[in-house]
């Protein structure tokens, strides 16, 4: 990409600065080495640099040219270095008769060598000498470096003679790459030209394969460090997959192998078509615009496009909000499409190298490059694919023997992926190019063709590796063309901290997770899903629903409802029956229900289970919904699914299953209570009979229904030991490694602020509460169980961590310690959270439970959120029966089952409104503690 000379005009007045420096030196007796003069020189240069950069930013905001901005900043930097060198040469370290050794060429290398700079980029310099270093050379280099450092620049530098440059380039790939990018700035130009000539003759010639293999391996390692997907929602625009470094790597390879100086020459060489070259330059310009804006905005060399800057960058680049999509989401979609283009360009260049049969270093046989690119050594290796005329397996990759295979029969655009899946092979880069160039053949006729849809459904529901094939189908652009509704979510990001990938990447990953579950290769995180998927009557329904569950994202309507509508249109096209279509649409419409209920409802509450069972209606749908929910959560991103969420989903499944196979009645609940009492009585045979009877009578009915048998036994022993020792406080800590949580049980005299004090203690110690169950005994004690996220891998370490938390709770309850003042005050939102604005939402519902009023509070997560809510609930004179805490990235949803002090639901409309207002204030950290609840909780 070229830039016109007028684009660089007016950034820095080099001639004017030189004249001022000359006058300054003359006025001070001609001694440029004087420290006073140096200080004035530095002041003058700082002002010039500041003005030049400000002008570059102004022009960037005006014309939006990212590449032009990078060139302008580079021009300012070049001129500053030239001015400093000239001042040092003529006014500080003057030599009247320089020897042959007293010559120097100042050369830009690395990114600076490409003639582009971001505002926060390092300035990489190579001082080239003809022979060994001289005292004069040392002084000039030192003067230039110190001046640049004093200007606040980060300078990478080396001083070498030409022989050293050549020798080190042979053995060090980093130095070789730096010199490959070498660009003359100032000084002795013949010296620079000699370096370039010797580098090309003695280093580059005959070493293409070695260099290319090293650069591709370096790129792969960088991707592993940054994250292997280019669709991460907080990408690194420089080092990430699809970023500027990938474009740099492409050009390094092309420059090294094809001996070109600019990207435009690759068109003349036949490596890139004119349209592909345009994609290269447009991608480069866009990425440079984003990077320059990012550096200007943050005031530092920030390369990660984090949430807290994305919206501001979007505004700077002129993106606006559209129905269903925020301005920042439109900007990030453009970013990911550019990242995809960069990946396409990589494959195109690799294909060109293969076609030229790039040979490896002599004596190595198949070189590292050949192994990396799997280059075919002979066309005779291509073998026809049995039963698929026109397709061949070429050195393990699928290719075609005819350039017209798709125009002859467009259905082959789908068949090629079915063949790739069946034979477990990758596509040859030339075949990938041919597919992309044939996308215009995908029209309504092909989309509605029964055979084409049969082939697509076969790929989608394959028992081999459907994720791999679907991703390749997406990368070629065919998936979005064949299923236009999918094309609308390609590269679409969701501006939240919960989803780690773009929508299309999430959908494809979810198919991969589903496949792993079906194969039994997904570990022990979700054993129930692994068992149930083998019992499904129709696995096809599950895969189609999984593929379509988020396909309506980015539209004004609710994506679950919109997705169900799209499914009713697409499923018949895919060949599904009416009954199958209905089930797929139902799964999509309700794909969030099971996760929401499991994480935010009381699963021991009969109404919760009966309502959910009424929605599900059949055991087969329950199985499908559980498996889809597990795969959906796992595909959101690393670490989102954990054992605790899996346990909640399993509990909901097992509680709902009897409703669908026979149904619970009030009688069965009474039977369940009696059975639970009998089970515990049988476990306590080492207790005296009277003691067993008294203990069992200490618990209300709700306790027996919702507490698991093993926990009932642990509670009994805890309470008995407290009774024997006369302690009114008792604690138990139980790490659960599989669920990824630690259970903390607190026995204490009932108090309206008990849960609030527990939450405050957890906040102070950095513990994250994920669930809470609250019970009260008939003799006035509270038995509260909280579950906190596990932090330490070893059970013994986690046990000690839990005991430190219970020790603080004990001291607070005894009055020996107070919660720090900062807990009771509003905790400011910090870091990436500042990028989000979530309005507080409070729902008060009496229909979700027969016994409790259910209060659902959502808002922006922050430290002390739960502490403030529980304090507020205490001041509202409400009893908490259970609490359920769910976090979805930056958004937190806390659900409380509450009654008034007499154990009744909150039926008064006016009081409900007061609850909404006060709790909404508490979400913002504003808690009115003037009205404290005067009495303890009661239990129905």
Automatic annotation (TrEMBL):
The keyword Transmembrane does not apply. It holds the Pfam family NTP_transf_2. Keywords: Hydrolase, Magnesium, Multifunctional enzyme, Nucleotidyltransferase, Repeat, Transferase. Residues 1-384 are annotated as: Uridylyltransferase. It comes from Roseibium suaedae. Its EC number is 2.7.7.59, 3.1.4.-. It catalyses: [protein-PII]-uridylyl-L-tyrosine + H2O = [protein-PII]-L-tyrosine + UMP + H(+); [protein-PII]-L-tyrosine + UTP = [protein-PII]-uridylyl-L-tyrosine + diphosphate. Belongs to the GlnD family. CDD domains: ACT_ACR-UUR-like_2 (cd04899), ACT_UUR-like_1 (cd04900), NT_GlnE_GlnD_like (cd05401). Residues 503-625 form the HD domain. Residues 743-820, 854-930 form the ACT domain. Its cofactor is Mg(2+). GO terms for molecular function: [protein-PII] uridylyltransferase activity; phosphoric diester hydrolase activity. It comes from the Bacteria. Uridylyltransferase (UTase) activity is inhibited by glutamine, while glutamine activates uridylyl-removing (UR) activity. InterPro entries: ACT-like_dom_sf, ACT_dom, HD/PDEase_dom, HD_domain, NT_sf, PII_UdlTrfase/GS_AdlTrfase, Polymerase_NTP_transf_dom, UTase/UR. Modifies, by uridylylation and deuridylylation, the PII regulatory proteins (GlnB and homologs), in response to the nitrogen status of the cell that GlnD senses through the glutamine level. Under low glutamine levels, catalyzes the conversion of the PII proteins and UTP to PII-UMP and PPi, while under higher glutamine levels, GlnD hydrolyzes PII-UMP to PII and UMP (deuridylylation). Thus, controls uridylylation state and activity of the PII proteins, and plays an important role in the regulation of nitrogen metabolism. Coiled coil: none annotated. Has four distinct domains: an N-terminal nucleotidyltransferase (NT) domain responsible for UTase activity, a central HD domain that encodes UR activity, and two C-terminal ACT domains that seem to have a role in glutamine sensing. This is Bifunctional uridylyltransferase/uridylyl-removing enzyme. One of its GO terms (biological process) is regulation of nitrogen utilization.
């Amino acid at each position: 990409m070229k830039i016109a000379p007028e684009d660089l005009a007016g950034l820095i007045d080099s001639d004017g600065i030189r004249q001022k420096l000359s006058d300054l030196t003359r006025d001070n007796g001609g001694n440029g080495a004087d420290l006073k003069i140096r200080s004035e020189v530095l002041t003058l240069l700082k002002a010039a640099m500041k003005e030049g950069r400000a002008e570059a930013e102004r022009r960037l905001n005006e014309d939006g040219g990212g590449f032009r901005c990078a060139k302008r900043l580079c021009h300012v930097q070049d001129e500053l270095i030239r001015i400093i060198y000239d001042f040092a040469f003529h006014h500080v370290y003057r030599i009247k008769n320089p020897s042959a050794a007293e010559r120097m060429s100042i050369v830009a290398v690395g990114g600076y060598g490409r003639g582009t700079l971001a505002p926060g980029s390092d300035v990489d310099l190579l001082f080239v000498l003809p022979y060994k270093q001289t005292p004069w050379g040392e002084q000039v280099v030192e003067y230039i470096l110190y001046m640049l450092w004093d200007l606040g620049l980060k300078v990478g530098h080396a001083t070498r003679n030409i022989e050293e440059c050549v020798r080190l380039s042979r053995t060090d790939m980093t130095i070789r790459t730096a010199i490959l990018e070498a660009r003359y700035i100032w000084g002795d130009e013949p010296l620079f030209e000699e370096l370039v000539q010797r580098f090309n003759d003695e280093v580059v010639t005959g070493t293409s394969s070695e260099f290319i293999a090293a650069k591709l391996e370096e790129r792969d390692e960088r991707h592993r460090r940054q994250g292997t997907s280019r669709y991460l929602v907080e990408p690194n625009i420089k080092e990430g997959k699809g970023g500027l470094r990938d474009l740099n790597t492409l050009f390094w390879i092309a420059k090294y192998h094809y001996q070109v100086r600019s990207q435009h020459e690759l068109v003349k060489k036949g490596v890139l078509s004119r349209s592909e070259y345009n994609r290269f330059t447009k991608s480069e310009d866009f990425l440079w615009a984003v990077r320059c804006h990012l550096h200007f905005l943050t005031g530092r060399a920030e390369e990660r496009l984090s949430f807290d800057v994305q919206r501001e960058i979007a505004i700077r680049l002129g993106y606006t909000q559209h129905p269903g999509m925020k301005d920042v989401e439109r900007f990030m979609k453009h970013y990911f499409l550019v990242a995809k283009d960069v990946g396409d360009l990589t494959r195109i260049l690799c294909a060109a190298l293969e076609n030229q049969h790039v040979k490896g270093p002599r004596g190595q046989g198949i070189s590292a490059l050949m192994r990396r690119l799997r280059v075919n050594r002979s066309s005779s290796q291509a073998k026809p694919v049995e039963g698929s005329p026109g397709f061949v397996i070429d050195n393990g990759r699928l290719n075609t023997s005819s350039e017209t295979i798709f125009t002859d029969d467009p259905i082959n655009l789908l068949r090629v992926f079915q063949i790739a899946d069946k034979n477990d092979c990758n596509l040859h880069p030339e075949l990938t190019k041919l597919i992309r160039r044939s996308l215009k053949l995908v029209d309504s006729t092909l989309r509605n063709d029964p055979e084409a849809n049969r082939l697509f459904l076969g790929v989608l529901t394959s028992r081999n590796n459907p994720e791999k094939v679907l991703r390749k189908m997406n990368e070629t652009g065919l998936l979005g063309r064949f299923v236009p509704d999918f094309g609308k979510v390609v590269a679409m990001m969701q501006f939240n901290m919960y989803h780690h990938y773009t929508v299309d990447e999430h959908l494809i990953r979810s198919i991969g997770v589903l496949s792993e579950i079906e194969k039994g290769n997904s570990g022990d995180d979700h054993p129930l899903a692994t068992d149930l998927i083998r019992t499904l009557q129709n696995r096809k329904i599950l895969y189609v629903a999984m593929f379509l569950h988020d396909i309506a994202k980015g539209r004004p309507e609710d994506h679950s409802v919109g997705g169900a509508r799209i499914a009713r249109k697409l499923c018949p096209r895919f060949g599904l029956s009416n009954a199958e279509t209905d089930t797929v649409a139902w799964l999509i419409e309700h794909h969030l229900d099971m996760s929401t209920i499991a994480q935010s409802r009381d699963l021991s509450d009969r109404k919760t289970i009966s309502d959910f069972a009424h929605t599900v209606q059949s055991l087969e749908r329950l199985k499908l919904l559980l498996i889809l929910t597990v795969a959906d959560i796992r595909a959101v991103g690393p670490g989102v699914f954990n054992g605790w969420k899996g346990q909640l989903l399993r509990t909901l499944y097992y509680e709902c299953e009897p409703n669908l196979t026979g149904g619970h009645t009030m009688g069965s609940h009474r039977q369940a209570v009696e059975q639970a009492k009998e089970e515990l009585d049988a476990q306590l045979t080492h207790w005296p009979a009277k003691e067993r009877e008294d203990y069992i009578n200490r618990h209300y009915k709700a306790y027996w229904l919702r507490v698991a048998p093993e926990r009932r036994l642990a509670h009994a022993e805890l309470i008995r030991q407290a009774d024997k020792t006369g302690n009114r406080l008792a604690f138990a800590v139980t790490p659960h490694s599989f669920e990824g949580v630690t259970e903390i049980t607190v026995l204490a005299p009932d108090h309206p602020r008990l849960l609030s004090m527990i939450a405050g203690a957890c906040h102070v110690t950095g513990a994250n509460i994920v669930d809470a169950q609250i019970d009260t005994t008939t003799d006035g004690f509270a038995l509260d169980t909280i579950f906190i996220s596990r932090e330490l891998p070893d059970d013994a370490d986690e046990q000690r961590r839990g005991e430190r938390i219970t020790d603080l709770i004990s001291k607070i309850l005894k009055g020996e310690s107070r919660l720090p003042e900062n807990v009771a005050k509003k905790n400011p939102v910090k870091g990436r959270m500042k990028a989000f604005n979530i309005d507080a939402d409070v729902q008060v519902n009496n229909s979700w439970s027969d016994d409790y009023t259910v209060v659902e509070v959502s808002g922006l997560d922050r430290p002390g959120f739960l502490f403030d809510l529980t304090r507020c609930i205490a001041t509202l004179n409400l009893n908490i029966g259970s609490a359920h805490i769910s976090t979805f990235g930056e958004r937190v949803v806390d659900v409380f089952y509450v009654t008034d002090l007499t154990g009744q639901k909150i039926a008064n409309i006016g009081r409900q409104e007061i609850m909404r207002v006060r709790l909404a204030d508490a979400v913002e950290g504003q808690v009115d503690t003037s009205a404290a609840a005067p009495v303890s909780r009661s239990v129905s």
